[in-house]
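Regression test attached.
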Amino acid sequence: MIIEILCVGNELLSGITLNSNAHWLAGQVASAGGIVKRVTVVRDDLGEISDAVKEILARNPDILVTTGGLGATYDDLTLEGVAMALGKKIVLDERAVQMLTKSYAVRKLDYELTEARLKMAKIPEGSTPIQNLLGSAPAVFLQAGGTKIFCLQGVPTEMKAIFEKHVMPLVKKGVGRFVAQEVNYNVMGVTEAMIAPALARIVESYPREDIYLKTHPRGYRKKTPQTRIQLISRGKDKKEVKKRLDAIAKTIENEIARLGGRVC
Amino acid sequence: MIIEILCVGNELLSGITLNSNAHWLAGQVASAGGIVKRVTVVRDDLGEISDAVKEILARNPDILVTTGGLGATYDDLTLEGVAMALGKKIVLDERAVQMLTKSYAVRKLDYELTEARLKMAKIPEGSTPIQNLLGSAPAVFLQAGGTKIFCLQGVPTEMKAIFEKHVMPLVKKGVGRFVAQEVNYNVMGVTEAMIAPALARIVESYPREDIYLKTHPRGYRKKTPQTRIQLISRGKDKKEVKKRLDAIAKTIENEIARLGGRVC
């Protein structure tokens, strides 16, 4: 289950907003056993959004999630960019208008459907609006070849609610049974370079998707190097996942001891 | 001055590590008046790194900054990926070996140059290593067509030190004189949709790079909407930048009042 994420917004490219949406989405996908292959961040520019969408679709992921650019303002261009990439028109969608009306009613707001507000109900032809009860702009789903595209909001609360309800079940269904177990070592006295050969041997002896093994350098305290070693065992069978985790953990612990390091 | 950022690392695509490097880099570039056109995040995979580099170079940015994947471990593949994209070999660079030796000496570490450590001195042919005194792996500079490529570390302290010393001066020189002034309004009683038409009119009447005007929805308190309006005026002349900021600020304040909102 391959997912790509496209985040749209100048504020993500000028140091104003930290891209916590991509981080959260990646964590969700990983927790279900899916793979986020790439995150792309582009500015609020029609051509750049459209180009990025085309490039992503050419890589044929199972799902493309976009975030941001669904609002009422002049620089909210995601749906237009997606439509342009697919050679589709943007059309005022009656269902989306009803959703806007409903979301105002639910929040007990008596808003007139001005032109600016109706912009949020203009979606690529052939796509399906998704009710957003925490904000105004509906999310949008459309199928493009083998890729399911979900255009989600940039506001984290709204994005998360729609993702959990509409995208996560598809990821879970696509991946099927999935179990992951993790162990982390904080090691004193061992650098990345020291343990690298042993870890490379471990990685080579398992299928790529069954384990995740990564060292994170944590600098030096006085002259003693500190390294975090992270091991995740993944698969469909809980017993097998555990067995693999235990076997690799044992190898790593022996290697740390051999190198004169200690786990703390 | 167009910059692209390529971040390499599975941990950025599985929700383990928040991509604070891209955020910091984007802030630095913006503060000097440069434009980050795109951020791309790929996994520790040779083909994916190489593909991303090729795609970025085809867009011909002035500078490409990569982060991560320079270390001693099996999954540190950035330099190999860059070399592959450019059809170059990876070669053991004597200057990089000296830098490794020096960085160990500076940190008073008595390390043997094992094969794993020497991996950090293997760089694309024709590129230039850059001393990293806060860690081991040198950074790498190479020119590819009109693009200056800087391969920086993933460890934030190391990446920041090299960026400030070696990349930031180029960004500043490329942009030339640059001044930015900013004002932010926290507005009660006005939604994005309400103020959108006025903001669109403002944006249309200035050259694209002279102002940055963005609304950030902040949800509702009881039934009152809250919106942050951010205005940045940019340019080469301080007086002009200030004059533009004041004029637009006045227009925005009048519009907020007209809509029955208030700044708080």
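Expected vs. actual: identical. The two ends of chain B are 36 Å apart (CA to CA).
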